[in-house]
């Protein structure tokens, strides 16, 4: 089976009702991004950070995968599909995709604030006083600005082995994720679905300037009915 590697960003979940980051002028639900998504923010006001992610976790219960998420699941009928997502929602999993790598963490997990590496499933509110088995405070399992991105290694390997790359709904502004495309061979055909695409340097690039719910099913039908 040919390997399709899909890099998704906030845009793929926009039509499910989850707002993107850059579209809100650096404010994220009225917060400075650094207040709620950095180790400094956590040290200054952990309650604010917990409240912020508790709201996001509650919001997840009200949203559903859209046609773009479901189309990527359909692609598995004929391709070995690896999704690398910058999103912390679980909409790819809920649409049925089987291989999903979360570069920036997952809303439905919590991890210890010590270095034990303990990661727990966490579906409800996370509060001060919620402790890991080592009696340390738990925090959202989110990669904040300035933190390492442990999943970059496997992500780079997937990209370097891809027969085709599909990029969906990302402004490619945040590194190291944005640098992933450089690990593909220059011969790898790359498709990019985004209503406001940024410039990607690639000789074999096809840009589809559409919303994900329109553009992704188009790409998927092309790949299912005509090879590439
Ligand atoms: N369909 C597809 N793309 C869309 C749609 C849509 N319906 N609506 C908006 N977009 C596109 C925008 O044009 C933009 O290019 O989605 C992209 C969203 O960009 P960002 O908000 O920057 O999101 P993303 O690239 O995922 O951000 C990366 O930044 O804040 C951090 O950790 C956070 O994972 C996030 C990372």
Structural description of this entry:
The protein folds into two domains: 1-18 and 66-104 and 149-228, TPP-binding domain (Rossmann fold), CATH 3.40.50.1220; 21-62 and 107-142, SIR2/SIRT2 'Small Domain' (2-Layer Sandwich). 29% of the residues lie in helices and 21% in strands. The protein has eight helices and eleven strands. The protein has a six-stranded parallel beta sheet with strand order 5-4-1-9-10-11, sandwiched between helices. A hairpin with a 6-residue loop joins strand 6 and strand 7 (119-121). Helix 5 (67-74) runs parallel beside helix 8 (212-225). The protein starts with a strand and ends with a helix. The model has no long low-confidence stretch (mean pLDDT 94). Bound molecules: adenosine-5-diphosphoribose.
Q: What small molecules are bound in this structure? A: adenosine-5-diphosphoribose
Q: Provide the CATH top-level class of the largest domain.
A: Alpha Beta
What is the CATH topology descriptor of the largest domain? Rossmann fold
Instruction: Write down the domain tally.
Output: 2
